[in-house]
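Section handout 9: paired folding examples.
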Amino acid sequence: MKVRRILRWFGWGVLGLLLIASAVGFVAYWRSTNDCGRSVPDGAMRMKAIRHCEYGPPDVLKVAEVEKPTPNENELLVKVHAASLNFIDAGLVQGPLLGRLIFGLRKPKFTGFGLDFAGVVEAVGNHVNEFKPGDEVFGGKLGSVAEYVCVRKDHVASKPVNIPFEQAGGAKHAGLTALQGLKTGKIQAGQKVLINGASGGVGTFALQIAKALDTEVTAVVSTRNVEIARKLGADHVIDYTREDFTKGDERYDLIFDNVTNRSMSERRRILKPNGICVLAGIGGAGPDQDQMWRIVRGFGVSLWSRLTDRKFRRYMTTWNQADLKLLSDLMAAGKVTPFVEKTYPMSETAAALHYFGEGHARGKIVIRVTNDSSPPQAMTQ
């Protein structure tokens, strides 16, 4: 009797918690909102920016008129010339369930779009001595597809004079992801490095950075991207539609896996003893159920590999100014050149994201912000 009573109370307790959680979730869902209904104050400076007031397909992206930002004491006001698309941008717009728990259940809390940019400093805060108005910079800021952004001084670096704005605008996130991933793999001169998925935004940077660090690089790409990989400096190119790179005789010190579409045993087979496989990406151009499973499986593989002599490593890209400066130096030296496949005007950002979402983009897809005279578009409330 006592056990039955305990089980009954336990069941009622669980039911009560579920009801409370449901009520909290219901309230949070309907209170989830954003500032899309707020008008620009009279007399305030205005600018155009891309916004998405709802979750959904790329068509929710609209050109809107918003208030021009003002830098605080540690920030720069930058007039944006170019920005670019990244994997995370597609996810923020689509609003997968896990992301909504962070960024807003019913509507996105933050309605800006974009992460990378390049432009010219227009003003600086009182505590900024490293940059001055007129300096050309590149870096990262959420909501970068806008005429102006205010960005922390440690989130930018000087734009090399030999790199146009449209190329520099696609450098920050993909470049840092590639550089920090190779560092996670403890890359060293003279090593043999394989890059699986060497033709995308991150892959084209990883290929060039690995070559700049004096390694022997093998690029794995599709037939249409073989020549691009060669032009970017790959020593060897494998067309995965004709050859299975996991069944060859070559062994590698480092695998930079941008796709993670092969099993642990297949990748272990081509790693040298004490070699490292860096799980840098999950393929595609936005989160879906299969890609979420790849993330979960990747963490499991990483933990299991701690018991073996061939390691699998995951990492998170960080906004590290020292790495951003190194990336700038590599570009200035001509060792790394951002590869841009297509450029769209800001008014066609939705079309750019449509193309990006097809999953076959090569290099970077860039949004040209300056000289876009398109009018603001109607926003859904």
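Moving on to protein 2 of 2.
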Amino acid sequence: MTNEYMLPKPVSTDEDYRIACYFHDKLTEQFSHWKIKFDMPTFELKQYTHVQSNGWNIYYQFGCDNEPYMEVYSTHRMASDSYYRYYADGTRLTLQAFGSTYIVGKEDEFHAYNDGVAKVVFDKESGILRGL
């Protein structure tokens, strides 16, 4: 799928800078309790970045469907995985992340759910965890 709105690399216009600041602020806000620092994004579309800090593994990448977005997948051994997509208009979608607990007797459903998540996040073209 081709997108007409492709963000430049590096950020070059005022609008792209505003979007970069918004995404940077969202990352910083989400992990502010742990004082994790992020570089200013350069909008390399579908090129994921990995940050490891204070027990967190954080993966983020940029894309564009009808408008620019940033996906963030985070893991920590003391918390459940989370997967979000932030759009430049302020919308936040919660995407399916790997489950870590299951109900006894429902193991098959748990594994089927995680298999479905794996197909998305490890997709060789655009999966946020494709490099693992």
